[in-house]
Design goal:
mainly alpha; 3 domains; 7 strands; 8% strand; elongated
Amino acid sequence: MLLPSPPTSKPEVQMRTVRMLSALGAGVLREGVYLLPARPGMREGLAHLAAYVNSAGGSADLLAVTAIDSAQELRFRARFERTPRYKAVVETARSLRHGIGMTDISALGRVLKRQREELEKIELTDFFPGRALEQARSILDQIENEVNAVLFPQASAQAVPKELKRSDYFQKIWATREPLWADRLASAWLIKRFIDVEGHFVWIGRTDPIPAKVITFGFEGARFQNAEPQITFERIVRFFRLSDDPVLMRIGKIMRDIEKGTPSGAEGKSVETLLMGAQHRSRGKVDVLVAEAEKALDQLYDTFTDPNGAQRTSRSAPAAR
């Protein structure tokens, strides 16, 4: 139990005390009285905070307390109830179901990712986990499967374009739907740099009709589209026989993870941050976003290329034969 009294003349100390207590997951017994279970690391955390408050000119007492009976033990545990927070996560996740088929599926994946992160944050300070945690995990898993089923439909004849001559993909108009995110941005970069250097691109609204005589990519019904287990970028790489380039394969996996809302490791998160930065700088202007993403992906490709090998700098590559 901690009884902190930060100096009233130092609001920054008061604010930091509140934040540290929140980060530790302390329960509030009453105003100015905070509890944590007697577990490894808990006492040290409160001791550190007490020392900080005392050194800042306030006062803080750290006490060891034991419930006198089972009823009091239950009252203490009630101060750490996390069920309402789990319910908020579940309600947000469930609301995504209404957007499936209406909202861009990648956007739903990003929201789902944030809810997964929030669930993990709650779990860190859930000292007495119970059924609410299990239910939240189960529901998030269900909704994630539903979102992924739309993001990665089963391969079909429509999803596998028949091989055409290279000339059929040269100096063409390529089209994808807005909003543009990892897969669509990376696919546009791939097409421009390695397949159709002199091609042109159009960005179509989510519900706008598709212009005639364009090569579509990156959405359901497009010539190149997601199909389990690959995103559009990976399918274009395979179709144009670029799979021998390990850097493109590596970028494809990163983009797939970002689209699923599960960027892994520092590498995936860094690339996601780069794309988010490009999105922010574009201020809603698609052409600016595409240009910014191209710069980021050019740098990424060059960074990943083996410095001891032949770096591919040409903006063209063999297409399907």
